[in-house]
């Protein structure tokens, strides 16, 4: 759907920022442009919505040459997220979200509906719609930055180092969120990054750029297995090449069956289930399996004494991982956050499994001693 | 003193009003020219700085000289006075507009442009509101200047409270001078106060909130 042919940008007559890049991107793909600074990745991205005009070559969206389109209309049809977020401080969150719909002259009701729908999508309360950007944290602001790029139902979203300015934990959360959003909405995302971990975690295909040239354009697996040349190998880092082999597995391979109860159970029933299964934490789901929260033994003790209901005492904010996430990424997050029990869910938030610290330890042992005979021989 | 007010009370009110509307019209013309001009000039590096320098030089010409220079061009009366005064206050407004627009967050502008705002929409919906605190304070400053300078405009027959002061000088009547001066000062302070309130309500809410 997005076809880039022989794209070149020359500054000052001879300085090639982007040098003859050609690539085809399918509808619904998550693409990363990665490279060191000065590799031309941002220039390439910004030529797609004509914030920078190409020197030569063509970009076609669904067969239409962008150079033939009105640049203002083109930009309204493509979402854009920048590292510095760039919310307009004098507008409320709602006005910020529906900036492009307003330019497209949507009706008030339609804008209102869209703003509500989107803010729910990124787990922020609707009351935030009336606040101003400066009242939100950086991570919250960038959530708004992301949904602002989706508000006019754009099919293509461009992101220029969207998480670069956030702290590691916020960045992790936002990466997960964007990945889930992208899957759910089926839109084409193209993002620029210099962080290989981020590219591997998010992208369906990665375009590696160096000095304006496209060095390799392939899936993360393929790039890790068959780096095109020494540059790519250096860029990925030898460390990751070795480390990555046992870790190409997904969360699904490592998870165990979780213990859960439905939300209509009484506390005494919950206690007997927990005693029987010998666990100190239990997940709470709806009847259809949708994850609602969790309870640990101390909460139950206290709630039981005070005669409260299960729904009143359960913790609703919990960190969860997606079933198709790479195990490597999840392990990093779990260790960073010092979590003990992490629920595994699918796109619809249905509880499917559980990762615990102890089964992570098993995996680490497996990868060190379980599969090594061949590796030891080679060494 | 009370004798003065019974003799000149009506004239004082009349001259105050005259003074006020000469200043207000001059201010209005100054704003209408300087704000859009400043927003355009803010984009240009060299031209903007060059115009600011020229405006700065113009500012150093004594008010009296500017008013005198108006006589051969526009004759005497209110119109040349208003023209001279509005030229005079271009600088503080222009200066603040250019600085205000240049200091707006480049990321907000980048985001707005890349989402498909036209140049005109960028100016009216992003740059103007974001620069509004500085623009408004420039206008407020200019309003105080213009009221004090309008006193001198009486010299070329524009009327206003300057008449009291000049007549007082001619007639050696200190009461007349003092009444004229106090009236100008009160007018200037009141205007400043009122524009201060306007500033507080006109600046977009989100800009004042900082974490």
UniProtKB/TrEMBL annotation, chain A:
Ranges for domain CBS: 248-310, 314-372
Localization annotation: Cell inner membrane
Cellular component aspect of the GO annotation: plasma membrane
The UniProt record lists the keyword Glycoprotein: no
PROSITE patterns: ABC_TRANSPORTER_1, ABC_TRANSPORTER_2, CBS
Keyword Protein transport: no
Cited Pfam families: ABC_tran (PF00005), CBS (PF00571)
Domain of life: Bacteria
MF terms in GO: ABC-type quaternary ammonium compound transporting activity; ATP binding; ATP hydrolysis activity
Keyword tags: ATP-binding, CBS domain, Cell inner membrane, Cell membrane, Membrane, Nucleotide-binding, Repeat, Transport
Enzyme class, spelled out: translocase
Catalysed reactions, as listed in the record: a quaternary ammonium(out) + ATP + H2O = a quaternary ammonium(in) + ADP + phosphate + H(+)
Predominant cellular place of this UniProt entry's protein: membrane
Membrane topology: Peripheral membrane protein
Assembly behavior: The complex is probably composed of two ATP-binding proteins, two transmembrane proteins and a solute-binding protein. The complex is composed of two ATP-binding proteins (OpuCA), two transmembrane proteins (OpuCB and OpuCD) and a solute-binding protein (OpuCC).
Family: Belongs to the ABC transporter superfamily.
Name of the protein described by the UniProt record: Quaternary amine transport ATP-binding protein
Taxonomic lineage: Bacteria, Bacillati, Bacillota, Bacilli, Bacillales
Name of encoding gene: opuCA_2
TrEMBL record, chain B:
Family of the protein in this entry: Belongs to the binding-protein-dependent transport system permease family.
One Pfam family recorded for the sequence: BPD_transp_1
Main location: membrane
Entry membrane topology: Multi-pass membrane protein
Organism: Phocicoccus schoeneichii
Location relative to the cell: Cell membrane; Membrane
Residue ranges of the TM segments: 20-42, 49-73, 79-99, 144-165, 171-190
Gene (name only): opuCB
Domain of life assignment: Bacteria
Keyword set, alphabetical order: Membrane, Transmembrane, Transmembrane helix, Transport
GO BP: glycine betaine transport; transmembrane transport
Stored PANTHER family: CHOLINE TRANSPORT SYSTEM PERMEASE PROTEIN OPUBB (PTHR30177:SF28), GLYCINE BETAINE/L-PROLINE TRANSPORT SYSTEM PERMEASE PROTEIN PROW (PTHR30177)
Protein name: Glycine betaine/carnitine/choline transport system permease protein OpuCB
Gene Ontology cellular component annotations, sorted alphabetically: plasma membrane
ABC transmembrane type-1 domain location: 16-195
PROSITE patterns recorded: ABC_TM1
